[in-house]
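Protein modeling request. Please complete all fields; requests missing the sequence field cannot be processed.
Requester role: graduate student
Desired output: 3D structure, token encoding
Chains: 1
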Amino acid sequence: MGNSYAGQLKTTRFEEVLHNSIEASLRSNNLVPRPIFSQLYLEAEQQLSSLEAGSRADNEEEEEEEEEEEGSESSSPPVSYQVKPPPEGCCTTDGFCQAGKDLRLVSISNEHIEVPSGFLLVGAKSPNLPDHLLVCAVDKRFLPDDNGRNALLGFSGNCVGCGKKGFCYFTEFSNHINLKLTTQPKKQKHLKYYLVRNAQGALTKGSVICWKGAEFRGRQSSASTCSSTLFQLPESSGLSGSTSSEPLPPANPSAPAGTQQTGTLTNSGPPKKRHKGWSPESPSSTETWNLQLNPQASNRIKNDGGSLSSLPHSALVGPTSSPVVGSGEPVSVPDNLMKICKAKPVIFKGHGNFPYLCGNINDVIVSPLLYTCYRNSQSLSRAYEQYGASTMQPISEEMQLLLTVYYLVQLAADQVPLIEDLEQIFMRSWRESHLSEIRQYQQAVPQAFPQVPSQVTPVTSAQLPWLAGLAASSCNDSVHIIECSYSLAEGLSEMFKLLIEGKLMKTNYVVIICASRNRAIDSCIVITGKYQARILSESMLSPSDYQKEVNYQLVTGKVETLGSFFSTLCPEGDIDLLLEKFYQENQGHISSSLSSSVTKPTAVNGAGAAVCTSYETERHQIRPFQLAVAQKLLSHICSIADSSTQNLDLGSFEKIDFLICVPPSEVTYQQTLFHLWHSGILLELGLEKEHLTKQRVEQYVMKLDAEAQIKFKIFLQNSMQNPHTLFVLIHDHAHWDLMSAMHSLYPQAELSTGLVDRLLNCREVKEAPNIVTLHVTSFPYALQTQHTHISPYNEIHWPSSYSNGVDLYRENKKYFGLSEFIESTLSGHSIPLLRYDSSFEAMVMALGKRFPRLHSAVIRTFVLIQHYSAAMMAVCGLSQMKNYTSVETLEITQNLINSSRQCPSGHGLMVVLRIPCIPLAAVAYERLYNVRERLALEDNFEIILGNPNSGITIGKHFVEQLKIWQKIEDVDWRPQTYLELEGLPCILIFSGMDPQGESLPRSLRYCDLRLINSSSLVRTSLEQELGLAAYFVSSEIHTEKAVVNDVLESDPEKLSSTDNEDEEIATEGSASEKRSPMKRERSRSHDSASSSLSSKASTFCTESSPPQALSNSTEEATNNYERQKQKVDKGAQTTISKHLPPVTEQLDMKQNIKSTQVSITSSSSPPFSSSSSSSAPTHNSFILQTSQCSMTKASKQPPIVFLPKLVYDIITSTDSSGLPKSSSLLPYHSVMWASSFRPLMSKMMTCTEQSLYYRQWTVPKPIHMDYNNRNEGRMDTFHPRRLLLSGPPQIGKTGAYLQFLSILSRMLIRLTEVDVYDEEEININIKEESDQYYHQPGDMWPDLESFKKMPFDYTIHDPKYEDASLICSKLQTMNSEDRSMSRRQEDMYTCRQTTRMRLSKYAAYNTYHHCEQCHQYMGFNPRYQIYESTLHAFAFSYSMLGEEIQLHFIIPKSKEHHFVFSQPGRQLESMRLPLVTDKSEDYIKSPTFTPTTGRHEHGLFNLYHAMDGASHLHVLVVKEYEMAIYKKYWPNHIMLVLPSIFNSAGVGAAHFLIKELSYHNLELERNRQEELGIKPQDIWPFIVISDDSCVMWNAVEVDCSGDRKSDYTWTERNVSLKQILQHIEATPNVTHYALIGMRKWSSKTNSAEIKDPFSCCHVHDFLMLNVDLTQNVQYNQNRFTCDDVDFNLRVHSAGLLICRFNHFNVMKKQIAVGGQRSFHIKSKVSDTPVSISPAQYICAPDSKHTFLAAPAQLLLEKYLQYHSHRFFPLSLKNYSHPVLSVDCYLNLGPQIAVCYVSSRPHSLNISSSGLTFSGLLLYLCDSFVVASFLKKFHFLKGATLCVICQDRNSLRQTVVRLELEDEWQFRLRDEFQTANAKEDRPLFFLTGRHI
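Delivered output (1891 residues):
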């Protein structure tokens, strides 16, 4: 057989190498066989002929000849064909049409070709141009379908060159395109390929057109990979299964239909045409990475015919063959197959054609999954295109089949093949065989690298059967190879014959190969092993079909045979009879004995009987982890809001509302209500009032059942009606129902199917700007596909507790999840928490063979019920029954029954028995309930049937117990969640196909998952089941426990310790025993014997043992186990029990001992002692304490989990990446792998990397709700307001998202609040108290004549000037202590008192505010074009500066109407000003100027709401270097840009320029409007100068309706700035006031301060300035601080009126950036920031002092503020003798008072007669200051003088001009300067003493 081809191998060498290679690969763990043919060389001459004979890779010419022969259907020569001569004058060149247009693909591949609807572009072959394809457009109706059939006869085509249409005959068309044929033209012969556009848009050769029904074999690339196992079908299949076929172009488009690529093992000779690979541009490369094709609806596979219909996808894709198409002669399935075989064989279609089956087809199952796997493994991923497509050929069909055989050979008898394993084998094999190319291509540029084929000889189809047989020869006949010559039909017939004859009893897998040299191989694999066939066939049932099948078997009574079989097993007779007999004999005796502990559980008598104090219900508290997750969620919400997409405007929301969606499980629903109630979140969010009712809480949780739509509709209505409320839609347990609303595969009765898609994905939710959706799940994989709605940036993963060994979150509990459970199974660890029950598995397997027609779920359930029944009977004294249960079940039952006796209050353990199938769960409940009743255990423990559709029902006796434990007085209380069953001894039968988020209490001790559906192997299902056991273990040290060893049982480190310490966590929570080294060598396999020994189950009484007894028995039993571990039958169990004599004694005892009794015996070792020691005899002296309570022990240890063996093997085995095998399973039923060619997941992957892996490599099936979420012309398909929170099960996600709602609410409130300064006015006690009031409290406007009589209040009352020098207005005596407290410079901002205020609707906003109303105002609305603006220069001369000032205006187009431009040149002429007489409610007359620096983001420049939408002119005054950034943030605002010389100037310069510009503009407007006949005095002269931190404005309303005139009441309310400005602008004789201002807001304002509605005093922060009256009073452009006080004093001394409206006030927001703080004083020499004290701001002239990089004026002001006492020592705290300051106010610090006088003629000054000054300050004095003026004032002896000038020369001139030396004494050393370099123009000081 091996030498049946022409070329002769060097036989001995070949066989030796081949045999060694196969043997080595069978022995090794590496499933990939080494390339063996690379070691062998055929003779050079024979090699080529051998390969050509053996392979079907014939070249194209040979193929054409074959086709011609087939076409003529005889061996006669072809009929010659006379070509019609072409028309005269037409083109006859090959490759061109008769019109002379080029048709060659290479020439026109990049041209645009018009293709009519229904036509396709195809490539025609011309015999004269073998290397070219000619492009034609052909009606697709005349082309074949994917089966090569159904092409209409005839032809219809167009010429793509000249555009000629309507060719109805192929003969006519072939003439037109110059094919020049010598034979009859046939479209089948010459139309060869579909043409497709590649990624670059170029036209390329695509797949072969499949004529004459030739099957196009296995080269399609498809996204429909199989499901997670060889045996598992998607849900859509029902009994038969289906694939969602998404056909893609073939991997080898260059290969003709009849050729076979050799694939992995390519020829070592020179490359031949037949070995051409596929180019990177070929359409097959569109596979993987991002799959963008549109798959068709899922196809159905019918079991009976074994056929799969596949709809063609589109002509671009090319035809695909049907996966399980029947062809050739039919094969008859024998009638009695099932009866003889005891199982339904499962046939997996492999390569090639598959025959029809007929006859008894119900006894076989045909599956296309292996076919799909083969097909997908032939499509190379784009990931490998970079290595060069020409040499990277996919794995050959022969190699695929050989590798499959290798894989099957290695499977153990109890293993089932996994499709993922096979895919990884193919992947690794391909990578290994191409390793050299991959490495070379990684090191070189692909184009430059020569095409070197791999030096590996291919496996030929002739060699394949022989190699497969050789591989199978070593497997003890578990794999049987059948070779057939003609078709698979003969192989299948032989296989059926062998099955009937019983010759395949030991065979699990039959591989049928039909290999012929002239065509592709056909193959299929039949699963004949009873165990494997059963598992595989059952896995093909959808969840609903699985339930239907089980229900059918229960209803029709098919299970009764099983029951009768059980009866025959028991030699004593039927179990029911035994039970009845036991009940009659022991009635009354047992009940009192066993229930004595629970009859009076908590009785506390006078003597003080013991009561268990360990029961404590955990109060709702947020753990550090949950807070961290809540904060991560919040930061994601903020990042969505901060992004430029404007998908979430947090600033527009005032409050939070929410709805939590949960699966339709009553327990989960009640559990969520419970968490919500106790979290207090509803009260915190203000959604509910104090008296909360359960009905109110239910409004916020929605069960996804039939009634959900009503509640959801209300939610949507609320969201629409409350646009300023942010609604958070929380989808908890989000992986539960991902069914598309379009595809419901479940019975129509299940209305909830697809509800999530219908509700949460509805248009209203997607489009609502105020709904954020948060998906919360432990298993996010199905939401992480290529089509997911959730951006990877919006995923939040539960954080790891440790980072680099550092505990990040201090938690008092340790979480036990899947990884910790797996870790416990590793050798060297504590007792394994994951176990399987080998005796149970053995019995199930035996019964499965006996009852082949019963579903294994039925068998497993009945066996387990039997085990539990027998175990209960054994514990109650029927010792003979212990042989009819497993040791595991006995341990569980014994601990359950005895648990309540160990606690004085009767607390016990919970055992969860998971039975997914609801009908089976009901059967189990009924049976166990009856057994419990017969054994009189009804008061000992409860049996609860947990059905997802209903609540919890428990007996009255147990309800009363729970009420006592939980101190509940409500008569009608019933437990509604499993958490409320804390401490109740019970078996919870947990039913339902999937857990739906139910949490279990801390008293959970055993999680029995032996009945989970182990054939349904997807990652989510497995992890979800194991998630039930996830647990928090208390890690606190309990001091009440008797400490024997140093290590306590609750030490969490020991649970995962891998070192050689001797401690071990005892199963029942006793003190950790010291074990001998011998004992530590525990077996790695955790089946029945080892687990029974490791469990030191507690007995009826709490006894202790002699140290050696149990130790010895344990060692013996362990050693015995090593010898006996292969035995799983009854005998093995008997052997084990012989080694545990205490067990037998225990079971035979009938004791009546109260739970509080302590029995210490030394005569016999105690049964399953709860503590043992081989070294510590002090154990004997234990005294029973509260910690002996089983529940307490259970809460300190994770539960023990029992799994089916199949699942246990998958969970505990690791793949090559080091991850558990379960991680590489298909993540979810409704998704599929995008490609078989995908890398393995890595152990080092973070959650984020896992997410990205699934996002790249999985696609949703059509039944998945994300299936239609594709790129429809948009950049991405992510929903901007969707988040995904994932974290391990039971870790506290509910608490985290409730906490998130809390902090989100607080943040929203914080967003609508600002910190405003809240300080009382200062220096109130200095204020002149006058009995005379000039106005009544209710006056709205000041009376001009009365106001003129009011004296000016020189004292500063603004609290921001608390550190400023007091201004004396007359002889005053002040309390010096009031002014002595000086704050440090930095304290000015940090220590000022603020109050948090809610923003009103009239607030000013910064750039972070977005709302619909002010979008246009801000210029950010995407509906409008980006606002254009123009730059305009505006110049005016000013004599004081001695030069022309040039300012620049930036004016947006939308604001140009406020300005006047010259008509021809559009030069800016002036800013429009209204008239004094204008009256309008719609606009503000005064232009507003806001000087600002460093606050482009935080400045409050959005006055839209403050102005209540009124038209107003607002100008931002900015420095030149900040112009661009302000323009970016405020594109729709007018900017006034200061000249560059003012870049380092202070606020004085801005005020100075605003005022001068405004006056200049007033003059221009007067001139302009005078020409229109308007008087100059009628032009509005006011401007508003506002700080950039004014946030809100208030008005005081005074009610004077009291009896007496002086009585009044007042209220303050927030009003718009528009109202205030319009009110002030309407003041009578308003133009007579120079300055109008208002109070600063304070919460401590008292009635006295607003009794007089108007004051004549200083105004700050927000003022209206009359630029006309103040024409000759300037701001000091040099000033940085106190420039407003200085200006106020100048205005008053000029005799002008300053009016403060006391009934209006402004609130100022605390802004932490910009403003005065943007000035930093630092050294000019070094860049390193060094703190420089104000004392260093001045120095002696010409000294080597460090110069500072700061303006001289700033240094002067700061120095005087902090160190002026050096210049004026006599003035310190000497308030009755102030410093005389001429023409200016400088802040000399709070401990020095100043007296301001103006030197101007006719100015108003205070009377200085009788006042003696302690100092004189002359600052840059001008010519108005003369010697005679100074001689009017009197000074103390020793008073000091300080003269400040611009330079030293001016200093001397001033001293001489003012004759200062007459009265003042100067010294040379008394001269100073600011610490500036010469180029920075320092200021100079001269000080002197009064003589």
